[in-house]
Amino acid sequence: MKPLTILFITIFICSPLLLRAQPDTVKYSYCELIGTARLFSNKVTIDIDFGEAKNVWLDNRVRDEQTGKVRIFNSMVDALNYMGSDGWEFVQAYVVTVGQQNVYHWLLKKRRRESK
């Protein structure tokens, strides 16, 4: 009788440890919006860096899907709204000054779709 009581007490004490599930980890993809001011304009040209290997000759500016022309944004916030409509979320921003020109860097993240 005593071993049976000890067994039930042990199961009762250990059951919360056994039932605790591992927390789900959320996976994110990141990209960086790089905005440079256009010459003699108040609009911004946006490059997107997804962290992939770059070809020196490849142009990675945002293009209109229908016309193929480089998309010109009114501001960095306009570009953020464009990316936000595709599910990207703002993480961090910083500015680097090159010569007399400010180059804006905005880091974005997006939840990955996990296939099971």
Describe this structure in words.
By secondary structure, the protein is α+β, with helices and mostly antiparallel strands. The chain has one domain: 2-Layer Sandwich (Gtp Cyclohydrolase I Feedback Regulatory Protein, Chain: K). Helices cover 23% and strands 34% of the residues. It contains two helices and five strands; from the N terminus they run H-E-E-E-H-E-E. The chain has helices spanning 2-19, 76-84; strands at residues 28-37, 44-49, 72-73, 89-98, 101-111. A five-stranded antiparallel sheet has the order 3-2-1-5-4. The longest helix is centred in the N-terminal third of the chain and has 18 residues, at 2-19. It starts with a helix and ends in a 5-residue tail after the last strand. This is DUF4177 domain-containing protein.
In short:
By secondary structure, the protein is α+β, with helices and mostly antiparallel strands.
Beta fraction: 25-35%
CATH architectural arrangement: 2-Layer Sandwich
Large-scale geometry: rod-shaped
Number of helices: 2
What is the CA-CA span between the terminal residues? 47 Å
For the CA atoms, what is the radius of gyration?
25 Å
| Total number of beta strands | 5
H/E series: HEEEHEE
CATH class: Alpha Beta
Organism: Chryseosolibacter histidini
Protein name: DUF4177 domain-containing protein
